């Protein structure tokens, strides 16, 4: 009896800890990492805390304990976070008689594949071919890379291939070599009448915007690539070796500390980028589509702050559990998004399982209601 009592106390303690962790993960969406960064790590661990709490709900249900309500109520409180990873709907979105706009977002990883043995020209051709097949109206590309010829010739060839006449791009950084492109680029079927870009002081570009005209109505397209964690080969090697203990590894303390500080820095920089972007969006007089690589999960400050103003097309028209858009070496997360403002509604959403980058491309068909 005494042993059973101790076990019950331990389980209550672990359940309480899991609930606190889940609540902290909710708070990560509202507390800016540049003010208090520790919550960002709880947000990153949201799926883990969610699964643990679900297991406790099942356990207490089987044992008929009232403690079931502690985890159950906490999960229900965060239903918005749950919908961001599993968009439960009773019916599919209905098509309305409005202007239909297909948007594609793809971090192409410099167009040259993810492995050293990849044929660079072949991968570039496959990416271009994929984008052409989509017959999209707007394509937002991150890490668009070209080298060796004048940028106007490169972009002219690319726009012709994907059958989108208009574009706006900006390099992440200024290059002395004017024949080098490493940029965020937006391609459009509709004329671009105004454009601009965003960067924090002493940091590289993180977003561009393009104002396009559709049947005399102007809408604004934001194309994002928020701060990367910037893991290097040492970090990837350390992570891989953690799952292969027979190999020689960097000491766990040293490797973990290095990755921890890189994550912390990225959380803080992304929060600063998003705060800058929020102000610009709030002052925008036009309907908005926002797409790109956030490098952040649906439990993050970046996601939560932008969805206070905009709607996630995955939540409205997507299917599946998690639907990770990251194809790299680390655990999979949904970090690429297509958002929109009130003048739009999502009719369809799709993630493409093609291995041409360390990201999967996504698309959404939006209905525009002028």
Tally of separate helices: 11
What is the total tally of β strands?
A: 12
Helix share, percent: 25-40%
- Helix and strand content put the structural class at alpha+beta
Shape: globular
Largest sheet report: 6 strands, mixed
Break the fold down into its secondary structure elements and pairings.
Elements: H1 2-27, H2 38-44, H3 46-62, H4 68-77, H5 79-85, E1 99-107, H6 120-134, E2 138-147, H7 151-162, E3 166-171, E4 180-188, E5 192-199, E6 205-214, E7 217-225, H8 233-242, H9 252-282, E8 288-293, H10 301-306, E9 311-312, H11 313-317, E10 336-340, E11 344-351, E12 362-368
Parallel strand pairs: 1-2, 7-8
Antiparallel strand pairs: 1-12, 2-4, 3-4, 5-6, 6-7, 8-10, 9-10, 11-12
Helix pairs in contact: 1-2, 1-3, 1-4, 3-4, 8-9
Polypeptide structure, described:
The chain is globular and about 80 Å long. The relative contact order is 0.15. It starts with a helix and ends with a strand. It contains eleven helices and twelve strands. Residues 231-242 have low confidence and may be disordered. The strands form two sheets. The protein has a six-stranded mixed sheet. The chain has a six-stranded mixed sheet with strand order 5-6-7-8-10-9. It has helices spanning 2-27, 38-44, 46-62, 68-77, 79-85, 120-134, 151-162, 233-242, 252-282, 301-306, 313-317, and strands spanning 99-107, 138-147, 166-171, 180-188, 192-199, 205-214, 217-225, 288-293, 311-312, 336-340, 344-351, 362-368. The longest helix is centred in the last third of the chain and has 31 residues, at 252-282. It has two domains: 2-77, no CATH class; 99-368, Endonuclease/exonuclease/phosphatase (Deoxyribonuclease I, Chain A, 4-Layer Sandwich). Strand 6 and strand 7 (217-225) form a beta hairpin. The chain has 370 residues and is α+β, with helices and mostly antiparallel strands.
């Amino acid at each position: 009896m005494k042993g059973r009592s101790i076990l019950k106390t331990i389980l209550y303690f672990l359940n309480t800890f899991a609930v606190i962790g889940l609540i902290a993960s909710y708070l990560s969406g509202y507390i800016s990492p540049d003010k208090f960064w520790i919550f960002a790590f709880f947000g990153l661990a949201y799926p883990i805390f969610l699964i643990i709490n679900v297991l406790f709900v099942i356990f207490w249900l089987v044992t008929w304990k009232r403690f079931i309500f502690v985890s159950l109520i906490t999960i229900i409180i965060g239903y918005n976070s749950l919908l961001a990873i599993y968009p439960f709907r009773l019916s599919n979105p209905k098509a309305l008689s409005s202007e239909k706009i297909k948007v594609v977002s793809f971090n192409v990883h410099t167009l040259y594949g993810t492995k050293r043995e990849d044929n660079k020209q072949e991968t570039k051709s496959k990416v271009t071919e994929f984008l052409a097949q989509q017959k999209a109206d707007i394509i937002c590309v991150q890490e668009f890379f070209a080298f060796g010829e004048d940028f106007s010739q490169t972009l002219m060839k690319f726009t012709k291939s994907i059958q989108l006449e208009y574009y706006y791009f900006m390099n992440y950084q200024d290059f002395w070599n004017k024949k080098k492109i490493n940029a965020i680029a937006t391609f459009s079927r509709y004329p671009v009448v105004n454009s601009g870009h965003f960067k924090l002081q002493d940091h590289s570009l993180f977003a561009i915007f393009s104002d396009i005209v559709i049947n005399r109505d102007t809408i604004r397209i934001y194309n994002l690539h928020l701060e990367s964690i910037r893991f290097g080969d040492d970090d990837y090697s350390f992570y891989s070796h953690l799952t292969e203990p027979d190999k020689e590894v960097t000491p766990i303390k040293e490797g973990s500390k290095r990755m921890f500080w890189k994550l912390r820095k990225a959380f803080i920089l992304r929060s600063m980028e998003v705060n800058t972007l929020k102000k610009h969006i709030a002052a925008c007089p036009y309907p908005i589509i926002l797409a790109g690589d956030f490098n952040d999960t649906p439990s993050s400050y970046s996601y939560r702050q932008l969805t206070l103003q905009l709607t996630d097309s995955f939540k409205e028209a997507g299917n599946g559990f998690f639907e990770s858009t990251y194809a790299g070496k680390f655990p999979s997360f949904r970090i690429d998004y297509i958002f929109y403002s009130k003048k739009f509604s999502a009719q369809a959403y799709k993630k493409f399982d093609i291995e041409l980058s360390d990201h999967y491309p996504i698309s959404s068909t939006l209905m525009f209601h002028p």
